Amino acid sequence: MHSGGTAGAAGTPREEIQEILSSDCFQICKTVRHGFPYLPTALAFDPVQKILAIGTRTGAIRILGRPGVDCYCQHESGAAVLQLQFLINEGALVSASADDTLHLWNLRQKRPAILHSLKFNRERITYCHLPFQSKWLYVGTERGNTHIVNIESFILSGYVIMWNKAIELSTKTHPGPVVHLSDSPRDEGKLLIGYENGTVVLWDLKSKRADLRVYYDEAIHSVDWHHEGKQFMCSHSDGSLTLWNLKSPSRPFQITIPHGKIQRDGKKPESCKPILKVEYKTCKSSEPFIIFSGGLSYDKVCRRPSLTIMHGKAITVLEMDHPIVEFLTLCETPYPNEFQEPYAVVVLLEKDLIVVDLTQSNFPIFENPYPMDIHESPVTCTEYFADCPPDLIPVLYSVGAKHKKQGYSNKEWPISGGAWNLGTQTYPEIIITGHADGSIKFWDASAITLQMLYKLKTSKVFEKQKLGEGKPTAEIVEEDPFAIQMMHWCPESRIFCVAGVSAYVVVYRFSRHEVNTEIVSLEVRLQYEVEDIITPEPEIIPPFPDASSQLPSLKSLSGSTNTVACEGMMKDSIPCLSVKTRPVRMPPGYQAELVIQLVWVDGEPPQQITSLAVNSAYGLVAFGNCNGLAVVDFMQKTVLLSMGTIDLYGSSDPYQRQPRSPRKNKQFTAGLTELTDSPVSLELERCKSPTSDHVNGHCTSPTSQTCSSGKRLSSADVTKSNRRGPGRPPFRKAQSAACMEISLPVTTEENRENTFSRSRSSSVSSIDKESKEAITALYFMETFARKNDSTVSPCLWVGTGLGMVLIISLNLPATEELRQTEPVMVSPSGTVLTLKGAVLTFSCLDCMGALIHPPYEVWRDPNSIEDNEKMRKRKLVMHSPSSSQDMGDYQFAVICSEKQAKVFSLPSQTCLYVHNITETSFLLRADVVTLCNSICLACFCANGHIMTMSLPSLRPMLDVNYLPVTDMRIARTFCFTNEGQALYLSSPTEIQRLTYSQEMCDNLQDMLGDLFTPVETPEAQNRGFLKGLFGGSGQTFDREELCKLGECANSHLSIQPLPGSGGIEGMKGAAGGVIGDLARARLALDERGQRLGELDEKTAGMMTSAEAFSKHAHELMLKYKDKKWYQF
């Protein structure tokens, strides 16, 4: 819904601007996912293609090769991935899921697709094994049975190894689930089956009987062969390793408990924790490697998860930072019957991926080229900059490289498969992530890759809070007091500004030189001077123990601690954190220019910052919260303005508000008092730390665990928490003036069933009852401050949570020389514009509809010793509108709130266009971005819609229900950038990038890496001899004996062929490989399998009927067996 107007007032356009963007320019698709796979469960490696696959609990698969080769695919069911198996050097992958389905993935296309699926209906899959160069996949189940699947047709063979046939008839107990399957290295016709209870069976596939059975009284976790096929090793639940010889299966050839303490009386060493996996790898020129996870002694309680490497007599224990999920040893040969020659171990941890170099005695790790540490500290906010100045990336990399860790292996990263090139997209992109520990990371995101450039630790400007001092604390958040809420970066001037959760702002300048200097700090009082709506006073103040030593606190979602102060202990004019007072060494990179802290006022904690803007040309930084606005001159280090929101209006205030009345106990006054007419459960107002937030201002702390209102709370008053926070949350997301509420239950990181609900409260929906008005958006610009202005001047645009827009005039000194000494005059202009909902973003267009960039200062090194005085002079770039009188001296002001967008003509302030974006929901993010040499307004709505509108006419061009906001992480981190790109945090560990540009969607195939590249399979050294001697009939046996489809036991299974996405390309790509027959035989096999399934079901029904008939006949026989003929 939009309307146009062409009023004839001065400064109003007389004719409509020709817009070049149309709906054909837009299409949405995901491009690439970066970061560590969230909740990993499985690992696989192709030793010939040299690519790695990781499966997760959410049903995702990440496939990694050389840097740039990083592919994400997802099972539609979302079931956890149990196991992954590559078809080595065939460009295919088999996944086994927790819903007992096998999937065959085609990797010969850039976006892998499922070619076939096979679901087990009556048995649960526990283990899979696919021998090298075999077409038969062995599948073990929870019942102890082993099935065989033909990989080419993905149809079940009729051959089943039942558990009761595999174990001895005299054995009365069930052996448990199948935990291991592998064929003998010396004979492909022999299959080793490991059962959980300690039984191992070597099954002869041809004769259909067990060649040998071994029994051990401890549960088995894993098994691995010696390459000669004469011995195998098992790991057990008591921390022991047993080595078995095929010639003497009655007892283990060797038993060791590697980490068990040897008893003095010669008894067996004490048992240890289970060894969850063991790998037994041989070397030609040295002792074999025995590598295992777990198995540590029980008495070492605090010991971290470990990987143990036994090589000869040397035992090395590698301690890990996180629990081990899985590990794989990388070997030189894919053939199981050759010396394995291990060279590395890939260790998949719960939150990291590391690769250990086995070729060096100290076992160093390889430097990981993938961005696996995005989540090193939880991400609290993100910013994305596309098409930024090209010199930034090398400059940031050069200062960041100096802080890199040392001691990595000097070998090349071993996961080097696939192929990738830069493609046609060449503009530089930078992603910035803010974290809970106060760190900031700059990433090179060019050409759909991600590489860490530089890390800035903002906490270094503050003193460390010493625990246990017993002194009263002024902190307003106990956990993660340095968490980053907001970031504002000017790439051209390299000025960087952050707002932290403890109500502070730090301004940084970039320098290539180290400097020792004191950190300058300012303190700002922002107090709200309007009477709060009084809520009933709690009758009981709970008793606090030891109130004299430390003030008790309740942590609120706004991050404030509401302190009941004892007499004489009221906090006033003190900041939340202490800035370092001594000179600080600042390395090259971003160096703190100024720290600004909000202070406690009359016992009330400072409210968190809800908006932030900086301008290098003006030398000003502005920030606001629910109390008001502050403007600071960071060149002269002075506070220019510190004013309550209402005072900014002057006589223009559209709302009637009472003056503040005196209060008896100021220390008990609300820091965040809001009205509420009905009690709201505290549970609704909770959020988890640090990955969820209430969108409309309820939870503004990225780390808070519980929430309370800003007033003091008694135990009887806890459930009366306020419904609506006072300001928009810190992550550039809007509060809703209509009190749209998004509530999430308290969850652990593992609970992925986050709910997302919205509720409307009529009692708080009328904005005339609002007691506080947060500053939600700020924007510096050269524009017309008043209706009768004839020239543009420096201005600060201010947007509030009630949809009000104010323009602040900035009167800067006339010359550059005076700028350092003369004060900057800041005053409200009296201009007030209105929108529905909290204001999100501003932008300014010239009279031709082109985007006007705010003025900036060209970067110069503040610490350079080589520059002379002339070079040190500031160079400003002012983007003034066209001076041509023919076009008229006017601008377009684009303003977007959470409900609607408006375009005003300046200086007339006529509303030319309005578009009501949403009635039932609200926007979380809105940005004016460039695309195809034009501009548009991009919006992300809480209901999951992504929308774009043309400028200045606000014509809707894209509206796609694309991304359900199932987690507040998405709402908090979603951001748009130029060239049709956007990103959000899809999980606590991963960044998902997407595009809304049709052009980029079309070019995406060229930008993605190839997972499969043609590689010659290495020749076997002694394959022919062994095959002829031991397994000469293996292949013949496979084809003739196993593939008896008529005997297919489909009463247990059903076959579900699924067409792959882009399946035709997959078929072509797979021709000649192991999947080569698939395209030709697929339909016939599917039909045949379906007929066989129907036939099998009928047969099963007949068997059931026959069994019932036999049972009844037997009962009848028993009943009448002893009766004489005359008794009938």
Automatic annotation (TrEMBL):
Lineage: Eukaryota, Metazoa, Chordata, Craniata, Vertebrata
Membrane association type: Peripheral membrane protein
Gene: STXBP5L
Family: Belongs to the WD repeat L(2)GL family.
PROSITE patterns noted in UniProt: V_SNARE, WD_REPEATS_1, WD_REPEATS_2
GO cellular component: neuromuscular junction; neuronal dense core vesicle; plasma membrane; SNARE complex
InterPro entries assigned: Lethal2_giant, LLGL2, V_SNARE_CC, WD40/YVTN_repeat-like_dom_sf, WD40_repeat_CS, WD40_repeat_dom_sf, WD40_rpt
Positions of region (Disordered): 651-672, 687-735
Renumbered ranges of WD repeats: 213-254
Compartments reported by the entry: Cell membrane; Cytoplasm
GO biological process terms on file: exocytosis; glucose homeostasis; Golgi to plasma membrane transport; negative regulation of insulin secretion; protein transport; regulation of synaptic vesicle exocytosis
MF (Gene Ontology): GTPase activator activity; myosin II binding; syntaxin binding
Biased composition (Polar residues): 689-719
PANTHER family: LETHAL 2 GIANT LARVAE PROTEIN, SYNTAXIN-BINDING PROTEIN 5-LIKE
Name the UniProt record assigns to this protein: Syntaxin-binding protein 5-like
Source species: Pelodiscus sinensis (Chinese softshell turtle)
Keyword terms, alphabetized: Cell membrane, Coiled coil, Cytoplasm, Exocytosis, Membrane, Protein transport, Repeat, Transport, WD repeat
Domain V-SNARE coiled-coil homology positions: 1063-1123
